[in-house]
Amino acid sequence: MKDIKQIFIGAREGRNDCVQFLIEIYQPRLLKFCFFLTGDYNLAQDISQETFLKMLKNLHSIKSEKAIYSWLITVARNNFLDIKKSKFNSLEELPLNSLVDRNNHDLELLHDLAYAFSQLEVKDRLVLLVVDFEKLSYIESAQFLDISENALKLRLHRARKKLLSILDETNPYSESS
Predict the structure, then answer these.
(1) How many domains does the chain have?
(2) Does residue 48 share a domain with residue 14?
(3) What is the pLDDT of residue 171?
(4) pTM exceeds 0.90, yes or no
(5) Statement to judge: residues 117 and 67 lie in one domain
């Protein structure tokens, strides 16, 4: 199997097999990012697909194979913000598709988490996604969000508190209910 650098070079040269392999590598992770950003699986798929189309048109602008995923999530974030500006007045209007079989506990937890994410402001979703889900360092996350590291830590702390509060409200077994 080729390493990612060779695949990236092949994709930049227009080799379809390399482009397809890049999509296969990054699609599950990007789709998860988009799902937790939007709270809607169909919208997440649309944003993910649009992001890959932009990748195909702009492979030459991606500096190296190490920058691919950062580039993808930045473009996905911008696609979401564009859609949000054009279609929705607030995040509360974003539909939350329920892909959940209520008999499956893990899917219920995923649904509850997706619902809680849908209730957060975009800036709070993004900080949680890049730090807690994507596991970017504080420095990388701050650069991605274009804020200082101290601002990132404060925003992360507040976003985690908000998320936990929402999860407590939706959990019928929480002590506060």
Answers:
(1) 2
(2) yes
(3) 66
(4) no
(5) no
Both tokens of 73, joined, read 């999530």
User: Residue 43's closest CA among 108, 100, 88?
Assistant: 88
Closest residue by Cα to residue 111 from 12, 172, 41? 41
Show contacts of 38-41: CB within 8 Å, 24+ apart: 38/80, 38/94, 38/118, 39/94, 39/95, 39/96, 39/114, 39/115, 39/117, 39/118, 40/94, 40/95, 40/96, 40/97, 40/118, 41/97, 41/99
Computed on alpha carbons and rounded to an integer, the radius of gyration of the chain in Å comes to 18
User: How does pLDDT run across 138-157, given as a tens digit for each residue?
Assistant: 998 888 888 999 999 999 99
* 87 and 104 within one domain: no
Write the CA distances from 173 to 113, 115, 161, 168, 169, integer angstroms: 15, 17, 18, 8, 9
